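Task card 7
Instruction: Convert sequence to C-alpha cells.
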Amino acid sequence: MDMKVFDSLHYGKENAIPSKALAKALGFQSVRDLQKQIERERAAGAVILSDPCGGGYYLSNDPDELRRFTRTLNARVKNTMRAAESAQRALDAVTGQESIAGWYDG
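Output:
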C-alpha cells in the first residue's frame, strides 16, 4: 500500500483521528492493517503519536505531547522486557538450560 498514514494526520492530540475512522478513510481492511502500516512508517523514522486512552493517531511538535508519548513507550518497553525475562526464566527452568546473557537481540 502506497498511502502513508503520516500524510493523513494532523498536529495536536486534540486533532487525533480514531483508528477505526482512519483505517476506513485510508482504505485499510482492518485496524490491524493500519497498525502494521504505522509500525512500518515508525520504523522508517516517522513520528506518529497515539493516545493510550484510545483517542487515535496524530502528529506533534509539542514538547509535552512528545514527552508523554515517549514515557508511555518506555513504560511499555519495560513491561514487555519484564514479561520476556519471566518467560525466559520459566523456559530455562523447564529445559534445564541457562539463557545466554544478552539474549534479546532487539
